[in-house]
Design a protein that fits this description.
Number of strands: 0
Shape: elongated
Helix content: over 70%
Radius of gyration: 16 Å
Strand content: under 5%
Distance between the termini: 17 Å
Amino acid sequence: MKLLDNLRRYGVRAFGLGVVNALLLSAVMVPAFLSGISPFPEPPSLAFAETLLGTRLPLPIGLVFHVAYVTLWSVVFVVTAYPALTFLRALGLGFALWLVLILVFFPFVGWGLLGLAVGPKLIVASLIPHLLFSVFLWGLGRVMFANRALEGTPQ
């Protein structure tokens, strides 16, 4: 019941937090891919979309998958953790999602367990965006939910 209540009360703002989080992450990750700094053969969200749909896709489709994924998990975080939107909880979610990436998604897209079919650099390279996800999630939560949470007024 608390989850549904939190979803009704905070869902729209949590959705906005998720979209902003995804856009901030994209602002860091897309230039890294385009400049060749990233060791990934392609963005993981694009690789997932292509594997799922069985065809080559343009980068914007991968970005849509990325925004949807980040937004979903940002909403889950707010709805399940509010009002305790702590850094440790955000970090825990980011770490759990990183484990899912390297243990499930990488093998699913053909990059092997931990991404080792591509190379060991993927392990650390995939951890960095998940750490940023956690920092952005926590920071945006503090900004977007701070005033009303501190006042104890309904949001």
